[in-house]
Write a structure and sequence with these properties.
about 180 residues, alpha+beta, 4-stranded antiparallel sheet, 5 helices, about 45% helix, about 15% strand
């Protein structure tokens, strides 16, 4: 039997993305409180994510949403990692308020954001270990949050994953629209 890499690439990339999801899940979390949510976007849902990003460009005028919407379509899949809001009760002041109880609605707990960043880093390290191409995207994460694909998450980032001869997520030109 001869198995060409092109014939199994998609399955390989999806398997690596699943390992990335596990890395995000097992990443250290403040006080051992796990408020991280992780999901995998594939197939027709990639188009839905891209179209949502294009609509968001229409609403906000940020051209990088258009560029990133096209990039999403070059990915085999997208890993979503988000966090729900859960004040840690440390009164650390990292959010800009002296105590957790003083935070205004909508101001995220900084510790939740740090946990999310660590989970993103853990996932990307797995991708690097397997030599697949990725990029952490705020824009696609915001679109996924708008679609409510990670139930209850107030912060979501997306990591498109690709295995091609040239990383489609770098050396990108801004859209001219």
């Amino acid at each position: 039997m001869i198995l060409n890499e092109r014939d199994c690439r998609h399955e390989q990339v999806v398997q690596i993305a699943q390992l990335m999801m596990t890395a995000a899940r097992t990443a250290p979390k403040a006080k051992g409180v796990d408020i991280i949510e992780v999901a995998l976007v594939t197939e027709s849902n990639l188009r839905i994510l891209s179209e949502t990003m294009k609509q968001m460009y229409e609403d906000n005028g940020f051209k990088f949403f258009l560029r990133d919407a096209d990039n999403i379509l070059e990915a085999e899949c997208v890993v979503l990692i988000g966090t729900r809001e859960h004040p840690q009760g440390l009164n650390c002041g990292y959010c800009g308020y002296a105590a957790c109880g003083e935070r205004e609605d909508g101001v995220p707990c900084a510790i939740n954001s740090v946990d999310l960043g660590i989970a993103l880093g853990s996932a990307c390290s797995v991708a690097a270990d397997h030599r697949v191409d990725t990029r952490v995207m705020f824009s696609a994460g915001l679109a996924a949050r708008q679609l409510d694909w990670l139930d209850g998450c107030t912060q979501v980032y997306a990591i498109p994953v690709s295995a091609s001869s040239k990383n489609p997520f770098f050396d990108r030109k801004p859209k001219s629209e």
